[in-house]
Amino acid sequence: MAKGQMASGIVAGRLSADVLAENFSDLHPPYAPHEAAVAADRCYFCHDAPCVTACPTSIDIPLFIRQIQTGHPAGAARTIFDQNILGGMCARVCPTETLCEEACVRETAEGKPVEIGRLQRYATDTVMAAGVHPFTRAEPTGKTVAVVGAGPAGLACAHRLAMLGHDVVIHEARAKSGGLNEFGIAAYKSTQNFAEAEVRWLLQIGGITIETDSALGRGLTLSGLRDAYDAVFLSIGLTGVNALRAEGADKDGVRDAVDFIADLRQAGDLAALPVGRNVVVIGGGMTAVDAAVQSKLLGAENVTIAYRRDQDAMGASRFERDLATSKGVRIMTNVQPVALHGNGAVREIELEYTSSEGGSLKPTGETVRLAADQVYKAIGQTLENAPDGLNLDGGKIAVSDTGRTSVTGVWAGGDCASGGDDLTVTAVAEGRDAAMDIHNSLMG
Amino acid sequence: MADLTTNFLGISSPNPFWLASAPPTDKEYNVRRAFEAGWGGVVWKTLGEAGPPVVNVNGPRYGAIYGADRRLLGLNNIELITDRPLEVNLEEMARVKADYPDRALIASIMVPCEEAAWKAILPRVAETGADGIELNFGCPHGMSERGMGSAVGQVPEYIEMVTRWCKQYYDRPVIVKLTPNITDVRKPAAAARNGGADAVSLINTINSITTVNLDTMSPEPSIDGKGSHGGYCGPAVKPIALSMVSEIARAQETAGMPISGIGGVTTWRDAAEFMALGCGNVQVCTAAMTYGFKVVQEMIAGLSQWMDEKGYESTSDFVGMAVPNVTDWQYLNLNYVAKAKISQDDCIKCGRCYAACEDTSHQAIAMSEGRVFEVIDEECVACNLCVDVCPVENCITMVQMQPGEVDPRTGETVQPDYANWTMHPNNPAAQAAE
């Protein structure tokens, strides 16, 4: 029977432990001090810098880079954390190519931006590796705030509130904190349990209690929280997954990409994690790329991303698409699944070509079949179990600029709330800003 | 292909690139390697008196200033003159000169300010067949405390006196190497000429402390927790050297005196600039110490190519060409009016010009929607700061206003004629035009 990449079906151990370790090593390895100095020196210290405007958390990027350049990475980290307490994770997962680095004037000038993300990592790593937490709490206010969900928005909100002197209880549905930082990011972007270490580091501020396995609908109610706390911040994420509307979508071997990504992040031994020989990922966003690339890195022989519109419409950035193709993932565009074939387990996926000219998607009638023993659905997540009584906007909790919901005393942020891209950095900004508004409201 | 052969004081060398008297020229091994690499000449590391040689410190001799990526911009040293016996140096010089008759070999000398000392060493140097001597009146550290080096170079009378002895007891060219650690470099240069020197070379190194170690509170280079000022050289000193060279080149007392240019020469372009200001050749040290002897190959190729492009057949074609354009501030044309202009096609919207002008100059750049930066002619005094801080070469340029145009800043019409401060009505000493 064939082994390794050629083994048929969904099997574990396609690649040796050494190869897997190499495949899942840091995507952007940290700078050595001299590399950081050289990279920092490229920053022009722009006036009213466009990178700052492009950063959802408005980090003073030229200032922190200059602090690195002058030999003060700890000061640089402080500048970053002032605006973004999860600056360590954002340095790893931000799509900088569409945010700060896209706006960098050296991108305009040379097509080679200052590597802001890696510099941010250099600064934040310096402080976090030393175990230093550069903030202290203000005098206790006697106010208590409930945060629902220990993802990026919830953590950022909790930290800021704790810093301002409030007591915070975070209710987290899972057994582990971190949200998508812990469960939803490709392993090569958050190596060495960084997400977990970051939460531990963040909690050093004090005044934050995390109750795990605690969720709305599982013993908690919004009205109960409103009664028990002075304010409530909802950062419950998007836990629903869109259904694949294709014949045979219920066959074995068809899974949600987010579950695969979570399993992979939590796997103790990647060699024990099964993956198909022929993997097809349906979707065009970051989740699709994360699932496809990691399938390939686990040893799948053929991995295809199938997206119904054209390249330009894909949610995944150019960098992410290039990353996928460089790892050997095939990206097919203008195809949509019409049927999954197989006796019990999926064996083939049938895709129909589409035309998306002028924006409207039209099937062409022409189809193609790909071998597929694993099909991952990465076609978007939805808000599930939103508490009653909250106004929604576009399927998400409707919020103001500062995160206020339609219910007094209840704020929301992160992916579950309306507005903003579903990015870690956006969630951090929303959590932070809601915390400031909660603080003003409680102390006003 | 331009001919780089230079004839400096009758000393011929295949190119104008000489290695300055310094660590790279301290012994036969180095000098042979330098000549093999293509250097046109060498000024041997400074010789001292016969007898027990000087000793050097046994800790760091150099300190550095860096630019981006640890690019060495300035180097400082506290090394003394050669610490090898005089006889050894003289024997080696004779051997090397015999093997490389087409290259220039100059002996640098520093002995006490006594006639006997000079009278003793000069014949021995002459026996080596060296093409000439250079009097080290420049080193600012160590030897100066013993009344030599810059201690001599700072007293024009001593310069003249020693130069006269050298001309008396030595029959080949005498070059006087000048210290920049002095108020007016024209005075020692004139003294050298009065003493009969054939040429001056400059600059020697500048008194300097490169850095202070903030942990030990010691200046660097640090010897057991203490530091002493050293001599500063390298690319950072070039502007100072160019200015001093130009002053000697255009001063009445010293005009026409041959000059060997020294001070941060790193590329062919630096050499061409020194030569345009009147230097017959250049001497190099830090560039070789930073990059090795091979760096001369770029200098040779670059200078040759530039001369071809300009149509210069020999270096003497352009030596001194820039000297007439060096003048005093009071003679600059005040009727010359320029305005900064920003090329929107080249602008990368960093806003450095705006920050510089708005915060520190004349508020003459406007920033508008979409990060568009434009010069406000009504405010622009053409100071050039925006050009200097712009990271894109030629993105901002200074455009001369034409006679007849009205300067929107002053409301005055640009005049076609030349007018300087000596004629300006605001100058109480101005001579009214007849």
From TrEMBL, chain A:
Q: Recorded GO terms, molecular function? A: iron-sulfur cluster binding; oxidoreductase activity
Which residue intervals define the domain FAD/NAD(P)-binding in the entry?
144-431
**Domain named Dihydroprymidine dehydrogenase: residues:** 22-130
Superkingdom of the organism of origin? Bacteria
Q: Where is the signal peptide?
A: none
Q: Name one Pfam family in it.
A: Pyr_redox_2
Query: Which protein is depicted?
Result: Glutamate synthase (NADPH/NADH) small chain
UniProtKB/TrEMBL annotation, chain B:
Description of how the protein assembles with itself and partners: Heterotetramer of 2 PreA and 2 PreT subunits.
Q: Which InterPro entries match?
A: 4Fe4S_Fe-S-bd, 4Fe4S_Fe_S_CS, Aldolase_TIM, Dihydroorotate_DH_cat
Annotated organism of origin? Sedimentitalea nanhaiensis
GO cellular component terms, A-Z: cytoplasm
Which of UniProt's keywords are assigned here?
Answer: Iron, Iron-sulfur, Metal-binding, Oxidoreductase
What is the name of this protein?
dihydrouracil dehydrogenase (NAD(+))
* Matching Pfam families: DHO_dh (PF01180), Fer4_21 (PF14697)
Q: Which family does it belong to?
A: Belongs to the dihydropyrimidine dehydrogenase family.
Instruction: Show the stretches that span the lipid bilayer.
Output: none
Every 4Fe-4S ferredoxin-type domain range = 338-370, 371-401
Q: Does the keyword Lipid metabolism apply?
A: no
- Function per UniProt: Involved in pyrimidine base degradation. Catalyzes physiologically the reduction of uracil to 5,6-dihydrouracil (DHU) by using NADH as a specific cosubstrate. It also catalyzes the reverse reaction and the reduction of thymine to 5,6-dihydrothymine (DHT).
- EC id: 1.3.1.1
> What Gene3D superfamilies does the record point to?
3.30.70.20, Aldolase class I
